[in-house]
From TrEMBL:
PANTHER family: HISTIDINE AMMONIA-LYASE (PTHR10362). One of its GO terms (biological process) is L-histidine catabolic process to glutamate and formate. There is a cross-link at A142-G144 (5-imidazolinone (Ala-Gly)). Belongs to the PAL/histidase family. GO terms for molecular function: histidine ammonia-lyase activity. This is Histidine ammonia-lyase. The gene is hutH. Its EC number is 4.3.1.3. Contains an active site 4-methylidene-imidazol-5-one (MIO), which is formed autocatalytically by cyclization and dehydration of residues Ala-Ser-Gly. It comes from Kaistia soli DSM 19436.
Length: 511
């Protein structure tokens, strides 16, 4: 199924579908005429004598150098090749496909001045599976994601490297195998492709989608931990959260109530429980996870706007004047990435405290030490908890805001930059850690609930336990644990744990 996008009106749901499914992407045909008009305006300027930045001049600190009309194509080619300075491992293919899709959306707004042939080639690459090899490092988030996007553009020229069907090859070979022809860029087209925030935005969107998946799973495992610890559901009363008023808190509290509804474990200790209050990691889940959900939603709104934005330079305006500005500065994306990093870290931090609670017999209300059947002979989940602590701490260290770390580049022409690209890229590692933490909580909480037999948990949480036990059996005695942790983490990362819960219970990103 081809996803057809309307530039300027692309939804978060469409972007998420592109990221998770890898479906082909095209923009609406209604965009074509405006794209061609803007391209004609650029061609007109390129044929004239008046210097206009990026069309018939050098770039950055070299903007004062006028380029002859006969050299405009060479200028664009040199620009792309000289900017292919990325280092590090290739970005994942689904993120590169999202980068290409975001570039399509931006070009489709008809303010970049590229020919329709450029747009068609990107669409055809997406349809045929030609995925440029883009090294993960090299962008400071202004003047656009220059190095990463240059590697993308190089493949369109038949240069660089690409993947096709999972095989790594030259860009020229990938295009040829897909039945596509490389393009020679006309005036401004190379600049239009590399001036933009699409790499930073794609990475931030990937972090957002992954973080939201983990946040939903954390509500499930948090509810499981609440029942395993025989915690109270009273702090999830709707009036408490309505009195404060934060939407994320209200939604998280609603989800926790729905997940615990009808739990025989909960009913068994509703009367006569000597504990007045549970620890914060149980009692304050709506306040913490809800605040994180609010951050995710704020970042989502920023990134949805950015995904629909035109972020190259100069731009063809509505009156067909061509004006140089600074939309390539990725400060909004950097802030969104920093918000996401904070949320990811905090979701993991409170989840880790629930894991620690359940393995500690002094806190777990009658559960054996480390949830082992025969503590001492067996260590149970002792080191699984230690691993969760290590991952939590690593995420904390990565949460320092990237957006405050500007440094001058390009001979001080680009003297303030956003650092959005690596600020967003760290979210991949952070969410991978979070998937593992939530997976460990899933194992810990399910094991704790097993010890409450013959009492059972709620119908909704029983569905979650069924999903957990489908990939990891109960821990009867010590065994090789790494595979269990990997399977539980993958259950979270794939969305299968969240999918085990009936629709409408877990909060979305819409807010």
């Amino acid at each position: 199924m081809t996803i057809v996008l309307k530039p300027g009106h692309v939804t978060l749901q469409q972007l998420e579908m592109i990221y998770w499914t890898g479906e082909p992407v095209r923009i609406e045909p209604s965009c074509d005429a405006a794209i061609e008009r803007a391209a004609a305006r650029i061609a007109e300027i390129a044929a004239g004598n008046e210097p206009v930045y990026g069309i018939n001049t050098g770039f950055g600190k070299l903007a004062s150098i006028k380029i002859d009309a006969a050299d405009v194509a060479t200028l664009q080619r040199n620009l792309i090749l000289s900017h292919c300075c990325g280092v590090g491992a290739p970005l994942p293919e689904n993120i590169v496909r999202l980068i290409l899709s975001l570039k399509l959306i931006s070009l489709g707004r008809a303010a970049s001045g590229v020919r329709l042939a450029v747009v068609r080639l990107i669409e055809d690459m997406l349809e045929s599976g030609v995925v440029p090899l883009i090294p993960e490092k090299g962008s400071v988030g202004a003047s656009g994601d220059l190095a990463p996007l240059a590697h993308m553009a190089a493949v369109m020229m038949g240069q660089g490297e690409a993947f096709l069907g999972g095989e790594r090859m030259s860009g020229a070979a990938a295009l040829e195998r897909a039945g596509l022809k490389p393009i020679e860029f006309a005036a401004k087209e190379g600049l239009a492709l590399i001036n933009g925030t699409q790499t930073s935005t794609a990475l931030a969107l990937a972090g957002l989608f992954r973080a939201h998946r983990a946040a939903q799973a954390a509500l499930i495992t948090g509810a499981l931990s609440t029942d395993a610890a025989m915690g109270s559901s009273a702090p999830f009363h709707p009036d408490i959260h309505a009195l404060r008023g934060h939407k994320g808190q209200i939604d998280a509290g609603t989800a926790l109530r729905g997940l615990l509804e009808g739990s025989p474990i909960r009913e068994s200790h509703r009367e006569g429980d000597e504990r007045v209050q549970d620890p914060y990691c149980i009692r304050c889940q709506p306040q913490v996870d809800g605040a994180c959900l609010d951050l995710l939603r704020m970042a989502a709104r920023t990134l949805e706007i950015e995904a629909n934005a035109v972020t190259d330079n100069p731009l063809v305006l509505s009156d067909y004047s061509v004006v140089s500005g600074g939309n390539f500065h990725a400060e909004p994306v950097a802030f969104a990435a920093d918000q996401l990093a904070i949320a990811v870290s905090e979701i993991g931090a409170i989840a880790q405290r629930r894991i620690a609670l359940l393995v500690d017999p002094a806190l777990s209300f009658g559960l054996p030490a480390f949830l082992a059947r025969k503590p001492g002979l067996n260590s149970g989940l002792m080191i699984a908890e230690v691993t969760s602590a290590a991952l939590m701490s690593e995420n904390k260290q990565m949460t320092h805001p990237a957006s405050v770390d500007s440094t001058p580049t390009s001979a001080n022409q680009e003297d303030h930059v956003s650092m959005a690209c690596h600020g967003a890229r760290r979210l991949l590692a952070m969410t991978e850690n979070l998937f593992a933490i939530i997976g460990i909580e899933a194992l810990t909480a399910a094991q704790g609930i097993d010890f409450r037999a013959p009492l059972t948990t709620s119908p909704e949480l029983a569905r979650a336990i069924h999903a957990i036990r489908a990939v990891v059996p109960a821990l009867e005695e010590d065994r090789y644990m790494a595979d269990d942790l990997a399977a539980a983490g993958q259950l979270v990362a794939s969305g299968a744990l969240s999918a085990s819960i009936n629709a409408g219970i877990l909060p979305g990103l819409e807010g």
